[in-house]
Design a protein that fits this description.
DUF2071; alpha+beta; extended; two-stranded antiparallel ribbon; about 90 residues
Length: about 90
């Protein structure tokens, strides 16, 4: 555990100023779907390669709830629902 704390501390060592947002992800569901390369390729920049598993491209749909503190003071809002849709690529 000490090693993880050290890495976290080093990762944020160069940041200056105050934090304005604290975010916590909860109630997460990870759902993955195979998708033909021909559908995804036109949506990805040319400098990137599609990352595959067993020569298959995958799309992930991730519904979750984001708990937000400190960004905006909106009464009665403690968390925000979100749906994250992503695929996996390699740069270069």
């Amino acid at each position: 555990m000490k090693e993880l704390k050290k890495v976290k501390k080093e990762a944020y060592a160069n940041l200056k100023g105050y934090w304005c947002l604290h975010q916590v992800w909860s109630n997460i569901l990870l759902v993955h779907f195979p998708v033909p390369k021909s559908i995804i390729r036109p949506l990805i920049p040319r400098c990137c390669q599609l990352d595959t598993f067993d020569n298959t491209v995958w799309i992930s749909v991730v519904p979750l709830r984001i708990g937000v503190k400190g960004f905006a003071k909106i009464p009665f809002i403690r968390s925000i629902p979100e749906v994250n849709v992503r695929t996996y690529i390699k740069y270069g």
